[in-house]
Design goal:
The protein is α+β, with helices and mostly antiparallel strands. The chain has 18 helices and 20 strands.
Length: 680
């Protein structure tokens, strides 16, 4: 083989490139001058489509995975409806927000961010909370998360963030975890992440259930009313069961015991006919007040404290129908923050501006071309007419010879609609500024709201955050990165950073925390509503139990809306000392204590339970260490006394006069942090 031929063959093979020490260029070889800011019309203006570097970078990122979603790959969904209970006509012309009682079909997909499609669901991660409203004016997609802020301020940084948080490319480790070098290197060198990292290290990142998880639109949008008047808004979705979380050790156990824990919880809740409900609302700011706050309202790394800008609730979302086929519905659904209806419009939030490009581009690859809107789960319920034709997977047959606008052969139809006819007209925002790659000075405070979040936590919540930081940063192999993280978070809290430094073997920080003393009670989960409804109790039982006692307690639990599983040595029927029978639907080896919100220790005859006594004791010990309530029946005292659990907060005994009532109250409280055990 001659040298020329060999050179041509080698050009067809993959080649190795080492980027270390090189200058950044586009894929065309043009040197890049700014990789931190997209091109805008003024520092707070809209992103310009002529930014070829941003478009190339984002397009390449959107097309990195097929067919699994690049992020939010692990998801589950359900159908339901939104019912308006307060008219928002004063603020928006959106038709589905006009008349109280109006019902709109919805489809909600919940997801993790970092993990692949087969990863566990209880990992520490952000959760997606995406809602598709099938309105009579077209589909409106509220594509949010369970955390109100995000890691970055400008969409041009999104590929970088996801590359950093995904498994490291040289060994594809770790899966669905942020505890590794590249993520924390990104955090330390991109300090706009500070606020979001506080949320990620908090209990918010390990929710108890999709049904007990708050949703946020994250970005600043606009409401525009019939008169053309606008208000800045942020969307909020508040679960009626309150916001509740797992603890870390519990989440890790569940990841092994039931990696499908969250989807199973949602599926079974709906299958059993229980309601899944959320309230939808918005925070609103007048346009004249845009600059009155000590944060920029267009900065996606900032929230609007609810004590300053209250949430106005106006409707209820109910999930009441499971999907019939996960692939056809959950996997093929395509959300896009650019899917809005008249009366809802965009702002110049630079992260939102980039998402308006990115999502459509992603769907074109993942779902095989431009006709993904014809997939049933994505079709609007209202008629749609346009001149778009052909393409991969075209399903609809458009009749006639005309497919262009303007035309005379079809009387210039389909024709456009005016504002009065319901046409979407973009809000006429005045835009001024030089074409520039820069970021507004008002975006540069990265630590004040991170400190606000810390100030708002209870001592237990702060301890959980501190433990999370220690666990995560201890996994980082680079001592330099560990030191940078410590030096960064001293600006949030000096005690947090100092404790972290001691735990991960680096120097204590020398910087100072920001001078912020304010707090926001709405940010603490300890202030959330608490109900027993749909919480799960495991009844640990054996032959010879007190049938009348157990029957009475179980009926009281069911009347309170508590879900009950009867857990025994093996599946089948058990008979009490008084002849009452129960059916065991879970065995001690087929389930686990971490999968229950509480245990009711019934036991039975001592000689009968000896052979599985160690399993019962383990169940009690685990539940006790996870601060869960435990009810003890009269026949359960002998086995309880052999465990590590001690009488005290959240331990309810059958000897008490109002046992069932007291036990339900304990279940409602969910956790008893004042137990004298190590806080995890």
């Amino acid at each position: 083989m001659d040298e020329t031929t060999n050179r041509k063959i080698q050009q067809l093979k993959p080649y190795t490139v080492n980027n270390y020490g090189k200058k950044m260029t586009t894929n065309q070889g043009v040197k890049v001058s700014d990789d931190e800011n997209s091109l805008k019309a003024g520092v707070r203006g809209p992103t310009l489509i002529e930014d070829f570097h941003f478009r190339e970078k984002m397009t390449h990122f959107d097309h990195e995975r097929i067919p699994e979603r690049v992020v939010h790959a692990r998801g589950f969904a359900a159908h339901g409806e939104f019912e308006l209970y307060h008219s928002m006509k004063e603020f928006t012309r959106a038709a589905f927000l006009q008349e109280p009682g109006t019902k709109t079909p919805v489809f909600i997909r919940f997801s993790t961010v970092a993990g692949s499609k087969g990863s566990a669901e209880t990992v520490r991660d952000v959760r997606g909370f995406a809602v598709k409203f099938y309105t009579e004016e077209g589909n409106f997609d509220l594509v949010g998360n369970n955390i109100p802020v995000f890691f970055i301020q400008d969409a041009i940084k999104f590929p970088d963030f996801v590359h950093a948080v995904k498994p490291e490319p040289h060994n594809e480790i770790p899966q669905a975890s942020s505890a590794h070098d590249t993520l924390w290197d990104f955090v330390a060198t991109n300090q706009e992440t500070a606020h979001m990292m506080m949320w990620l290290m908090s209990d918010r990142a390990i929710p108890r259930s999709f049904r007990m998880m708050e949703g946020f639109g994250v970005h600043t949008f606009r409401f525009v009313n019939e008169a053309g008047q606008a208000k800045f808004i942020k969307f909020h979705i508040k679960p009626r069961l309150g916001v509740h979380s797992l603890i870390w050790e519990e989440a890790q156990m569940i990841a092994g015991e039931d990696p499908d824990f969250h989807r199973r919880d949602l599926w079974e809740t709906i299958e059993h006919g229980n309601v899944v409900e959320y309230d939808l609302g918005v925070q609103m700011i007048d346009e004249k007040d845009e600059f009155m706050f000590d944060f920029d309202i267009l900065d996606a790394t900032k929230l609007w404290p609810e004590e300053i800008v209250p949430v106005r609730l106006f409707g209820k979302i109910t999930l009441n129908q499971n999907v019939e086929n996960v692939f056809a519905e959950t996997e093929q659904v395509a959300y896009h923050p650019g899917n809005v209806v008249p009366g809802i419009d965009f702002t110049n939030d630079p992260l939102l501006q980039g998402r308006l490009f990115s999502y459509l581009d992603t769907q074109l690859l993942r779902l095989g071309g431009p006709n993904f809107t014809e997939i049933p789960i994505n079709r609007p319920i209202c008629p749609f007419h346009n001149n778009q034709r052909d393409g991969f997977s075209r399903q609809r047959i458009d009749k006639g010879q005309v497919s262009y606008h303007k035309n005379s052969l079809a009387n210039n139809t389909p024709s456009t609609s005016t504002w009065k006819e319901g046409g979407f007209v973009h809000y006429a925002e005045k835009v001024e500024g030089r074409v520039i790659q820069a970021r507004s000075e008002s975006f540069k405070d990265h630590f004040s709201q991170a400190r606000l979040f810390w100030n708002s936590m209870t001592p237990v919540e702060k301890q959980h955050i501190m433990n999370a930081f220690i666990f995560e940063v201890s996994k980082v192999q680079s001592k330099s990165v560990r030191q940078q993280v410590v030096d960064m978070f001293v600006h949030v809290d000096k005690e947090l950073a100092t404790t972290l430094a001691d735990a991960v073997g680096v120097n204590r920080p020398t910087g100072e925390q920001v001078n912020v003393t304010a707090s926001s009670p709405a940010l603490s989960q300890e202030n959330t509503p608490k109900y027993p409804y749909t919480l799960k109790v495991g009844v640990l039982i054996g032959e010879g139990f007190n049938g009348s006692e157990v029957k009475s307690v179980v009926n009281s639990l069911l009347d309170a809306g508590v879900t009950v599983d009867i857990v025994g040595e093996k599946l089948g029927t058990l008979t009490g000392a008084d002849g009452i029978q129960v059916v065991v639907n879970q065995s001690l080896v087929s389930t686990a204590p971490s999968l229950f919100d509480s245990l009711y220790i019934v036991g039975g005859k001592a000689d009968n339970q000896k052979k599985f006594e160690s399993q019962l004791i383990n169940y009690i010990n685990v539940a006790y260490s996870q601060y869960k309530p435990i009810g003890v029946a009269s026949t359960g005292m002998p086995i309880f006394s052999k465990s590590d659990a001690k009488p005290g907060p959240g331990i309810v005994f059958a000897t008490e006069n109002d046992f069932a009532e007291d036990y339900i109250q304990a279940i409602t409280q969910q956790r008893f942090w004042d137990r004298n055990i190590y806080i995890t």
